[in-house]
Design goal:
The complex is a heterodimer. By secondary structure, chain A is an alpha+beta fold. Chain A folds into three domains: about 80 residues, no CATH class; about 110 residues, Butyryl-CoA Dehydrogenase, subunit A, domain 2, CATH 2.40.110; about 140 residues, Up-down Bundle (Butyryl-CoA Dehydrogenase, subunit A, domain 3), CATH 1.20.140. Chain A is about 45% helix and about 15% strand. Chain A is built from eleven helices and ten strands. Chain A is globular, with a radius of gyration of 23 Å. The N and C termini of chain A lie far apart (about 50 Å). By secondary structure, chain B is an alpha+beta fold. Chain B has three domains: about 110 residues, Orthogonal Bundle (Butyryl-Coa Dehydrogenase, subunit A, domain 1); about 110 residues, Butyryl-CoA Dehydrogenase, subunit A, domain 2, CATH 2.40.110.10; about 140 residues, Butyryl-CoA Dehydrogenase, subunit A, domain 3 (Up-down Bundle). In chain B, about 50% of the residues lie in helices and about 15% in strands. Chain B is built from twelve helices and ten strands. In chain B, a hairpin with a 5-residue loop joins strand 6 and strand 7. The longest helix of chain B is centred in the middle third of the chain and has 36 residues. Chain B starts with 6 loop residues before the first helix and ends with a helix. The chains are: A alpha+beta, B alpha+beta.
Chain lengths: ~400, ~375
């Protein structure tokens, strides 16, 4: 047992730091141009633009420790915005279950950040019970296309997406996890209507997507008909590991401390307030524990295991911590946190504080609500089976 | 970075797991609790023969020369069995104080006996007024020629009645709560002026109040530097906290697993209790907090072993979290076992009691949160 970084890891950490420092955004530069160039340079480092992709698909082939270092360093450095839908969510499904033609057709554009994807999973009656989805896909008589009709909801950034990857129902036979088919559908076409949903924080991020008689060529089906649930399930485990956001929370907590030290209270600052300090301390300790739970899980992943049950702990704990950071940010902002929108009043950090906190309420709901995560842990980790009731 | 234990440590783990399995069924343990000494001499001898009593004692003095990770492996297993023998008081606390603070002469004289089990030590740090502050000491040691004379009172000293020597924290100068002016001495338990009043603790172990009246101790029995004993006192306390936390993690594992097993057997309302989601989620929380405690245990232990800059804060974090979650897991284990959980017949209550006592030793949850936040 040891927690030292090896000399190779230390050298890697140095290399990452140098890369991030050399390519940070400079004021006045064209952001879009800088962004695409950053990814190009990261690619030239040997797949750093697709850090989580396997080596066979152009990824860097890092060890779990290297991934951890990358997460830590990028959490505190300025990196270009990026979306997970194509890169981290669809790409692994295509790599594992798509055919070569689909891989060649879709992966390069995802990698070049040319095409925006969104995820068509949830439906008005299929939230936590995702397998209850009803969006129908009917295969044409000649077997050349599906006709898709139904409604998807909570579709993040559907309004800027070029494509949607969708779970659809092709059969009602058997249990509801069967008969689900994974389809890839272009967004910009007749029959697809995107309606914005404004969430508590006042922002437009998620949408309702109506699909009416949308024709999808059969070559846009990933894997076999009726097997889509299995493909999506692997993806969900992947999604949960990413949602814990430990490195980002560590950086956010440092910021929070700085902010609290700027808030005056009489002759001292909020950071000297015993009850605020105690809340910060409890938060930091929870984060220290979760950070090591993640390291333990990374270390076991080093033996090539899939993200296991500990990924469920991480999502649960990680998202609760993110919410508590938002809450303490609101507290630090005091009365100015109540200003709606980016009004130039009060401390800079406090602007939109309550909006951020309200938005964070979704963290323990999306990607498998915390209660669903507990169900999963009870079943898969504690091994609790439903008893034969009398 | 690596969380696997070495192959040597694997062997240690196997043998201690077997020991606990063979000797620590609840019935056997409760018989030992009722004896005057409160533990088994046979078990003590077995521990000596297996080399455990010298696990952290330097090889030069007949020990195994291990570090806090080796102690963690032993204590985690002891926590699973609620082991009663005074390994913690004697090896983890007493022997460390001598190994780190004693003269070569004293080490040569004292440590081999600790390793072979013929000598038992304990550590007297608390006082009635000190609550959890290691530096709050009114017991005084005054120079008298080549000797020191100690007067005062020490509280809740583990297994003092069976100990041969006692490490005592004293004030040799400075005010009541100053870190400077503290000195540690090794006194003989049977020295004139030492009055030991024993009593059982809630968790079935033995402790004592110790009155010290004009106790003479030669200056060769000074541990660490005169007036500068706080550092040694704190490092022994740190070793103690790591060991207690490891024991607590072992006890938590039993509590959550016993609860999962019990709720699957016990039927009410025509269902196994484990069918009820409200109970499932409670058990998931117990499991998660056990894992989080384990993560902090690894973190603090490894940082102490590697002498990392954040080690002291991680130790505070650990003791806070283990205290808080030990109570959480214990209370819920009893709650989910229902009426039976409140009896002495099932083992869950005994593990709960141990966790309560662990929270009270070397600073409770609130105490360490305050130190962490400071």
């Amino acid at each position: 047992m040891d927690i030292d970084l090896s000399s190779n890891d230390l050298a890697f950490q140095q290399e990452v730091r140098e890369f991030l420092a050399a390519n940070a955004y400079k004021n006045g530069a064209d952001y879009a141009e800088w962004r695409l160039n950053w990814f190009k340079l990261a690619r030239e480092k040997g797949g750093w633009d697709v850090s989580k992709w396997p080596e066979a698909f152009g990824g860097p082939g890092w060890s779990p420790t290297q991934h951890y270092i990358w997460e830590q360093e990028t959490a505190v450095a300025q990196t270009p915005w990026d979306l997970p839908f194509g890169l981290s969510m669809l790409a692994p499904v295509l790599m594992n279950h798509g055919n070569e033609e689909q891989q060649n057709r879709f992966l390069p554009d995802i990698r070049d950040r040319k095409v925006n994807w969104c995820q068509g999973y949830s439906e008005p009656n299929a939230g936590s019970d995702l397998a209850n989805l009803k969006t129908k896909a009917v295969l044409s008589e000649d077997g050349s296309y599906y006709t898709v009709t139904g409604t998807k909801i909570w579709t993040t950034l559907a309004h800027i997406a070029d494509w949607i990857f969708c779970l659809t129902r092709t059969s009602d036979a058997g249990i509801k996890q069967q008969g689900i088919t994974f389809l890839l559908i272009p967004m910009k076409q007749a029959g697809i209507e995107v309606k914005p949903i404004i969430t508590l924080g006042g922002s437009h991020t998620v949408n309702m997507v109506h699909l009416t008689d949308v024709k999808v060529p059969v070559e846009n089906r990933v894997g076999e008909e009726g097997k889509g649930w299995g493909y999506a399930k692997g993806l969900l485990a992947h999604e949960r590991t990413g949602l814990a956001g430990i490195s980002k929370s560590l950086a956010a907590l440092q910021n929070l401390r700085k902010q609290a030290s700027q808030v005056k209270r009489g002759n001292s600052t909020l950071l000297d307030d015993p009850s605020y300090r105690a809340k910060l301390a409890e938060l930091e300790i929870d984060l220290m524990a979760t950070e090591f739970t993640e390291l333990r899980s990374l270390a076991s992943a080093a033996n090539g295991a899939e993200p296991g049950p500990e990924s469920s702990i991480l999502k649960l704990k990680g998202t609760e911590i993110q919410q508590r950071i938002q809450k303490l940010t609101v507290e630090a902002g005091g009365i100015y946190s109540a200003a709606w929108g980016p009004m130039p009043v009060g401390h800079l950090f406090a602007r939109g504080g309550m909006s951020g906190y309200l938005s964070s309420r979704a963290y323990t709901i999306y990607g498998g609500a915390s209660e669903v995560q507990r169900d999963v842990i009870a079943k898969n980790v504690l091994g609790i089976k439903k008893s034969q009731s009398k | 970075m690596n969380f696997d234990i070495s192959s040597e440590q694997n062997i240690l783990q196997d043998s201690v797991d077997r020991f606990v399995q063979d000797h620590y069924e609840l019935d056997k343990r409760q018989l030992l609790v009722l004896t005057e000494q409160g533990f088994s001499n046979d078990n003590w001898q077995t521990m000596a023969e297996l080399g455990w009593l010298g696990v952290s004692v330097p090889e030069a003095h007949g020990g195994f020369g291990g570090n806090e990770i080796d102690t963690m492996i032993l204590m985690q297993a002891f926590g699973k069995g609620l082991v009663l023998e005074p390994f913690f008081a004697s090896t983890v606390l007493g022997a460390k104080a001598i190994a780190d603070g004693g003269s070569e002469d004293l080490k040569t004289k004292m440590l081999p006996g600790v390793v072979d089990g013929s000598r038992q030590l304990t550590f007297a740090y608390a006082e009635a007024q000190s609550r959890f502050d290691l530096n709050d000491i009114v017991t005084r040691a005054q120079r008298d020629g080549d000797d020191y004379v100690i007067n005062g009172h020490k509280s809740m000293v583990l297994h003092a009645a069976s100990a041969h020597q006692i490490v005592v924290s004293t004030r040799t100068s400075g005010g009541q709560a100053e870190q400077a002016g503290i000195s540690l001495f090794l006194i003989d338990a049977d020295a004139a002026g030492v009055e030991i009043t024993s009593f059982p603790t809630v968790d079935g172990q033995q402790a004592a109040e110790i009155k010290l009246e004009g106790v003479k101790v030669p200056s060769s029995r000074l541990l660490g530097a005169l007036d500068q004993g706080y550092e040694l006192l704190n490092s022994v306390a740190t070793a103690g906290i790591l060991a207690l936390a490891a024991e607590a993690v072992g006890a938590m594992e039993i509590l959550y697993k016993d609860t999962v097993a019990y709720t699957q057997e016990r039927e009410q309302f025509d269902h196994a209790l484990s069918d009820f989601q409200v109970l499932q989620h409670r058990m998931v929380d117990m499991f998660m907090e056990y894992e989080q405690c384990k993560s902090l245990l690894y973190r603090a232990t490894l940082e102490v072993v590697q002498n990392s800059t954040g080690a002291q804060r991680s130790v505070h974090a650990l003791k806070y979290y283990v205290g808080k979650m030990g109570t959480f897991i214990g209370e819920n284990a009893v709650q989910l076992h229902g009426g039976m959980g409140t009896t002495e017949e099932l083992r869950v209550g005994h593990y709960f009691k141990r966790l309560l006592v662990i929270d009270a030793q070397f600073g409770n949850s609130d105490h360490h949160l305050a130190l962490f936040a400071a």
